[in-house]
Design a protein that fits this description.
The protein has 471 residues and is an alpha/beta fold. The protein is built from 12 helices and 19 strands.
Length: 471
């Protein structure tokens, strides 16, 4: 591999921004500084631009099966990671669900191989812990998976009868996480409260797509967050709460952190930049916005922004789970498989390509967060929590040469037609953003050069992640 000199930019880490040149060699950052007569095979002029660590999206669902494996998300590891690269994300961490005819470990190894053959960027995998009745010996598999690089396990507190685990299994899993040095994750919604509300809505004839948000009340999310933290504290494990959508749930995390609980919260761009009011009157087209937890009312957003600014929420990922509104011939049933009946709408929205641009526009340009906090939310803190730091999430000698040259003055309009995703719509359609990635490097390789991709399927490396750095 040749050498590259990124010259004249402002290097931004989570703790500081400095003017410096960056020398890349053999897939690593070789040197950082000013006034050196460094020679390189290629020189990239970053004058007037920022040099950021490559984005790390720790919550994606690529070619991900749902609803009893009757359908799956539209983007596979090929299209999804191409889109990630174009958006400045150089690492994704996806999820493994136990397949019906395989153990969790067997499913994990198979999915790792599928992703390795298609990915354009580096990737890791979280293990999703199934209910005991689906695999009684699942704790044995979890022990084995630690050696396979699965240093994070996800537990569902929603979807009774399919994915939800009870409090006893949460406690058992949390205890094992302490033993193995693993970071447990929770989808925190009270599944029984939601199921009850769904029954009430259906019995009164309220079946339209927008009623999905009504079924997933703020209280169901806040209660589950509170309960998960109490259970985690009781066994002494840290905890990561995925896709926090409700300001009430974020407040529960804030109160817990004030008490000394080791809990971290993640939110997503769709909760910060899109609102229930945007889809409430769209009829069946509201299916495009259906995800769990739901995209909530506009008045909820400011509470999430306050939580990000205060450090109550620690990361911004996407929960990317894109489906199509129209029905491609080569995909199983997509968003409109049961128009007018919200319980059958596939849950999930796209976003892996747009994450950095949307957060920059709505967060940095509005003054809600500064550029160092931006880097911490999208790269550094995810790397630390999920066993990737200091190889990733940092611009420093010895780290992987995963870098984004960001033009803060570049004008761009987000559209589905201009996206590299398989999905046929975009939540941020028509949003004008000022600031976008113009060069993206993955382990020193110039993967995206002003919108032009140079790579091939399988160049992304599987990341066997270490223990989280919790401090």
């Amino acid at each position: 591999m040749g050498s590259t000199l990124i010259k004249g930019g402002t290097v931004v880490n989570a703790d500081a921004a400095v003017t410096a040149d960056v020398l890349l060699r053999d897939g690593k950052i070789a040197a950082l500084g000013l006034g050196h007569d460094w020679r390189a095979d290629t020189v990239v002029d970053a004058s007037g631009k920022l040099v950021l660590p490559g984005g790390i999206d720790v919550h994606t669902h690529l070619e991900y099966p749902i609803d009893g494996f009757t359908t799956r998300t539209a983007d596979d590891f090929h299209s999804g990671t191409i889109a990630a690269a174009h958006g400045g994300t150089t690492t994704v961490v996806d999820f493994v669900k136990k397949e019906p005819d395989r153990s969790l470990r067997e499913s994990y190894l198979r999915r790792r191989d599928v992703a390795a053959a298609k990915s354009f960027v580096d990737f890791g995998l979280h293990a999703i812990v199934p209910p005991r009745e689906q695999q009684p010996d699942v704790l044995d598999d979890l022990r084995l998976l630690v050696a396979e690089g699965a240093s994070s396990w996800k537990f569902f507190m929603a979807y009774p009868g399919t994915q939800m685990v009870d409090d006893g299994q949460l406690l058992d899993g949390f205890e094992l996480a302490v033993e193995c040095g693993v970071l447990p994750m929770v989808h925190a919604e009270n599944g029984h409260m939601i199921d009850r509300e769904i029954r009430l809505l259906l019995s009164s004839g309220r079946t339209a797509e927008s009623f999905h948000a009504v079924a997933h009340a703020h209280e169901s999310e806040a209660e589950a967050v509170h309960r998960a933290v109490v259970l985690a504290d009781s066994v002494g494990t840290p905890l990561y709460v995925v896709h926090v959508s409700s300001a009430e749930a974020a407040m529960e995390i804030g109160r817990a952190r004030t008490r000394g609980s080791r809990v971290w919260g993640e939110t997503c761009p769709q909760y910060l930049a899109v609102a229930y009011e945007d889809y409430a009157d769209l009829g069946e087209r509201a299916a495009a916005y259906v995800c769990s937890p739901p995209i909530r009312e506009r008045g909820n957003q400011e509470g999430l922004w306050r939580a990000l600014g205060a450090g109550t929420l620690s990361t911004v990922a996407t929960d990317h789970a894109g489906f199509c509104m129209e029905q491609p011939d080569d995909l199983p049933p997509q968003k409109l498989r049961s128009p007018g009946y919200f319980p059958k709408v596939p849950n999930g929205v796209p976003g892996v390509e747009d994450r950095l641009m949307v957060l920059w526009e709505t967060g940095v340009r509005t003054g809600r967060i500064d550029v160092c906090r931006f880097v911490d939310l999208v790269a550094t803190r995810p790397a630390k929590l999920f066993g990737l730091f200091p190889d990733k999430g940092l611009i420093a000698p010895g780290a992987d040469a995963d870098l984004v040259v960001w033009d803060p003055a570049a004008d761009h309009v987000i559209t589905a037609a201009g996206s590299h995703l398989r999905t046929d719509y975009n939540l941020y359609e028509g949003m004008r953003v000022t600031g976008r990635p113009v060069h993206v490097f993955s382990r020193g390789h110039h993967l995206v050069d002003d919108g032009v991709l140079d790579g091939e399927p399988g160049r992304g490396a599987f990341l066997a992640r270490g223990n989280p750095q919790i401090f």
